[in-house]
Amino acid sequence: MTTIYLMRHGQSQANVEKIFANSNEGFPLTEEGIRQAEMAARFLRLKNIRRIYSSPILRAIETSSIVSSELEIEAKPLDEIREFHVGELEGKLIEGEAASAFLKLVRDWIGGKKDERIPEGESHRQVITRFWKGINTIVDECPEGEVLAVSHGGFLSMTLPFVCNGIDPEDFFSRSGVSIANCAITTVKACRCGDSISLELLDWANTSHMELDFEKEPIENIWNSED
Questions:
Q1: Of the candidates 159, 214, 164, the residue with the CA atom closest to the CA atom of residue 184
Q2: pLDDT tens across 33-57, in order?
Q3: Which residues make Cβ contacts (< 8 Å) with residue 87, sequence separation at least 6?
Q4: 3 state SS of 53
Q5: 185-193 and 2-8: which strand pairing?
Q6: What are the distances in angstroms from CA 68 to CA 60, 112, 154?
Q7: Quick one: which H or E segment has residue 192?
Q8: Is the Cβ–Cβ distance between 107 and 124 less than 8 Å?
Q9: End-to-end CA separation in angstroms for the chain
Q10: pTM given for the model
Q11: Long-range contacts of 126-132 (CB under 8 A, 24+ apart)
Q12: Spatial contact of 59 and 23, defined as CB atoms under 8 Å apart
C-alpha cells in the first residue's frame, strides 16, 4: 500500500493576477507562496516521506524544491501531474467570457461529458488517462510507504473525485468547501491489485498545517484554485 500526499503548490503570481496559466512556466511563487511552502515543508517533515514528485510547471517546482530542501529528498519531475491544458483560454484573465467558458467545461466534466474541451485544450478523458499514468509510475516506484506529489488545484479537483472509490462527483461538488487552497494536502491510499490500482480518499484539501484560515469557495469560484 502506498500513501500519497497530493499537495497543491504555493501561491503564484498567476493566482494574484487571476490569469489562466495552466501551462505557462513564467509565474513564480509569491513571497506568500514561499511562506506557505515552508510551512507545509515543516509539517511534512513529521511524515515518513520516501519520495517526492513534482509537476514540471515552475510554481510546482519551486514549491517542491522548498519541501525537498527541508526533507533532504530530491524531487523528481513527473509530467503526468501537471495542470490540465485550457487551450485558447491560456494567458487570459479569469473573468467574463473566459471564466464562463471554463465554468461550463467544469460543469460538463462533472456531469460526465468526458470528451468536452476548450478549443486546443485537454478533454476530461485525456486528463484522467494522464492521471492514471502518473499514479502507476508512483506506485511502481514506491509500492509501500509514503510519498508526496506536488501538483495543481484544477488537476487534483478534476481527477480525484472521479477515480477514488465510493465517490459520486455530482454529489461531491454539490457541497461547499471543495476548492483546494494553496499548499492544501489531499491524502489517498493506493493499492495495486494485479494490473489495476484502487484509490481510497482519506483526507481532502487539508489546511490544518497552515497558520492562516482559508476561506472555502463554492464551485462557481473553482477556477480561482486552478492556476
A1: 214
A2: 999 999 999 999 999 999 999 999 9
A3: 117, 118, 119, 120, 121, 122
A4: strand
A5: antiparallel
A6: 12, 37, 23
A7: strand 185-193
A8: no
A9: 31
A10: 0.91
A11: 127/84, 127/155, 127/158, 127/159, 128/159, 128/162, 128/163, 130/80, 131/80, 131/81, 131/155, 131/159, 131/163, 132/163, 132/197
A12: no
- Give the separation between CA 3 and CA 208, rounded to whole angstroms: 18
pLDDT tens for each residue of 119-165:
999 999 999 999 999 999 999 999 999 999 999 999 999 999 999 99
Which positions ≥6 away from 103 have C-beta within 8 Å? Answer: 220, 222, 223
- Residue whose cell numbers read 517546482: 61
Identify whether the C-beta of residue 70 lies closer than 8 Å to the C-beta of residue 7: no
Residues paired with 150 in a beta bridge: 7, 54
- Give me the count of residues in the chain: 227
Q: Which of 113, 186, 163, 156 is nearest to 22 (CA)?
A: 156
Q: Rounded CA gap, 170 and 109, in Å?
A: 10
Q: Rounded to an integer, what is the distance from CA 216 to the centroid of its chain?
A: 16
